[in-house]
Amino acid sequence: MNQDYPELQQFLAGYFNQDWVYDHEKADDVIDFFISESSEDTILEVQAELDKLMRSGKTEQELEAYLFSDIGCYYYYLSEWPDGITWLRHVVSTLKSRTPQMKNEKR
Predict the structure, then answer these.
(1) Which long-range contacts (CB under 8 A, 24 or more apart) does 49-56 make?
(2) What are the φ and ψ backbone dihedral angles of 28, each rounded to 5 degrees?
(3) What DSSP state is assigned to residue 18?
(4) Please, what sign has the CA dihedral across residues 44, 2, 20, 68?
(5) Between helices 6-15 and 27-37, what is the axis angle to 10°?
(6) CB contact at 8 A, 24 and 71
(7) Does 41 reside within a domain?
């Protein structure tokens, strides 16, 4: 378990695992699925850990290695996004914008 980003690792390694492309059509569907299955506290913790990671000062090469090797994320964001920070900002934005909506639909 990653000591610095435990909830982020659970999210990225657990939901963007090696089989995610068989379960979901696109990466945003994975984020929506995570939101639908997670508590608000977990989602907020993932957002906080994403913010912390984006402020860590890692170069793009370091961030890529960290996400793929250390965290265990199997989503190759460079196929859709110019760099890791841009994708991570999108993830945070998606979590923030869809969380209340998705939670209300579950009721």
Answers:
(1) 49/4, 49/5, 49/6, 49/7, 49/8, 50/8, 50/88, 50/91, 50/92, 50/95, 51/92, 52/4, 52/5, 53/5, 53/8, 53/88, 54/85, 54/88, 54/89, 54/92
(2) -65, -30
(3) T
(4) positive
(5) 120
(6) no
(7) yes
| pLDDT on residue 105 | 57
User: The domain containing residue 77 runs over which residues?
Assistant: 16-98
Q: Has residue 107 been placed in a domain?
A: no
Does 106 map to a domain? no
5 in any annotated domain:
no
Q: Each residue's pLDDT tens digit in the chain (107 positions)?
A: 678 999 999 999 999 999 999 999 999 999 999 999 999 999 999 999 999 999 999 999 999 999 999 999 999 999 999 999 999 999 999 999 987 655 555 54
- For the chain, what is the domain count? 1
pLDDT at site 98: 83
